[in-house]
Specification:
The chain is an all-alpha fold. The chain has one domain. The chain has 3 helices and no strands. Helix 1 runs antiparallel to helix 2 and helix 1 crosses helix 3.
Length: 81
């Protein structure tokens, strides 16, 4: 996932880029849950995957949507340079 959407939990404070507010609610939820779960499961192993499924169901579709948004943002940024 990309840093422009949200930052990682390093010092007990979780911050998100304001661009997250422009996304659909389900993608916002996915990004927030993704980062919050790293407090319990620091990597994307089986525990993290099972927690994502417990909270979001089939989260893979949502994460694919986040990757598409991030890809479009990178392309737009590159064109603006």
């Amino acid at each position: 996932m990309t840093q422009w959407l949200r930052s990682t939990l390093l010092t007990g404070r979780l911050t998100f880029d304001s661009s997250l507010l422009t996304l659909r609610k389900e993608l916002q939820d996915c990004a927030i849950v993704h980062e919050l779960l790293h407090a319990h499961a620091p990597n994307h192993g089986k525990l993290w995957e099972s927690l994502m499924r417990a909270h979001l169901g089939e989260y893979e579709r949502l994460e694919a949507g986040l990757r598409r948004v991030a890809s479009r943002a990178r392309l737009a940024s590159a064109k603006a340079r």
